[in-house]
Fold this protein.
Amino acid sequence: MKMTLLTESFPPQVGGIENYLSHLAAGLSEDHTVIVMAPSRAGGKRKLSRGSGEVPGARETYTLERQRFFYPFIKPAWLPVFVSLWRRAKRGEIELLLCGKALFEGLAGYYLKKYTGIPYVVFTYAMEIEMWSNNKSEIKKLKRVLSAADRIVYINEVTKKLLLRLGANEKQLVKIQPGVDKRYFNEVSEPLIESTLRHYGIKRPYIISVGRLIPRKGFDVLIEAFSKLDQTKFGDYQLVIVGSGPEEAQLAALAEDHGMAGSIKILSEVPDKHLPPLYHGAELFALTPREIKGDIEGFGIVYLEAAACGLSALATKTGGAGEAVQHEQTGLVVELAQPTLLKEGLGKLLTESALRSSLGAAAQRRARADFTWPDKITQLEELVTGL
C-alpha cells in the first residue's frame, strides 16, 4: 500500500508524539511505500536510515519529505500542503493518508477523502483533543474530522471516552499504545553505570525522573514531596531530574528554596545513550504529572522505559499515566499531584525494598510482554490491512 504520513511532529524534534510516529513509520513492512511529509528544515527531500536495530525486522528506510506547512496570507494557511497531497493522489501516489493529529492534519485528510475518496487514519493522544473539544471555533472542525475518519488511533482510555462523546464510534477506534526502544531492554554493566554516574556527579542511592520541564509534568510538586521526606531516613538520597524546558531555572530555584540544592540534580543535556545506565542505577522512577485544563498527560513513555530497566514507579492518576503504571502491580499511582500524597508514596517505596523490587520485576515483565515496538507495528499493519 502507498501511504503518506502527514505530521507537524517528527524528529529531530523531541517529544512523545515524535517518538511514537517515527517508530510506527519506520516499522511498516516493505510491502508498503511510506512517505513522511513534515515541516521544512535544512536539506529538503531526503531519506532517513532506520538501521539502528531499535525496531527488529523494520524497514531500513522511508522517504522523508520536508516542505513549508503554513502560509500566513493564505486561508487556510495549510492549503498548499493540501494541494500537494491532492496532486499526489491524482497521480496514484497515495492510497492511505495517516494524519499525525486531528488538526490540521486530519482536516487535510477529511478534504482529501471528500475530493478523491482516499481513506485516512487519525492519530490522537490526549492533550490536543481535550484542548480542542473546549474551543468553540475548533470543536466543529474536530467533530468533522472524527466523523469521517476511517480509523481513529488512541493511546489511553481517557481519550477514548472523550472521542466517543465527540461522535466517534467504536468501529472507528483502535488502541495502539507506544512501545519501548530496544536499548532499554538490554543489560547494562555495572562499570558502565558507575562511569555514567561519575560523569554527572551522581551518588547512589537516587530517585530518577525524566521528562520535559513544563508545568503539566509536576516536577515542582515532586521536588516539594522529596524535600518533605524524613531526612533521618532518606537524607542520603538524591533526586535526579533528566530533562530540559522553560521551567528549568524555576525548578532549580525551588530546590534551593527548600534547602535541597545539594540533593536535587537537574540534568538538561543527556544523550539518549546515557538514559539506560541512569535508569539502571536508580532505586525507583517517579513522574507526577498534574491535571491542567486543556493539557493532560497522554501516556508517559518514560514510565515504560524505566519499567524495561526493572524500576518500579510512582505516578499520578491523570491522563494515560494510570495505564502506563498499574497501581500496586508495577508501581504506585497516587490520586492527585499533592506533596503530602507523593511524600507518602515515595516513603513507602523507599522503605519497603522487597515491595519495590517485586513491583520493578513485574514492571519489567509487563514491558517485555506488552510494549515492544514490533507488537505495536503489527497492530498498525492489521489496521491498514483491514481498510
User: Anything to note?
Assistant: The chain has two domains: 2-179+372-385, 182-370. The radius of gyration is 22 Å. The longest helix spans residues 353-370. The chain has a mean pLDDT of 91.
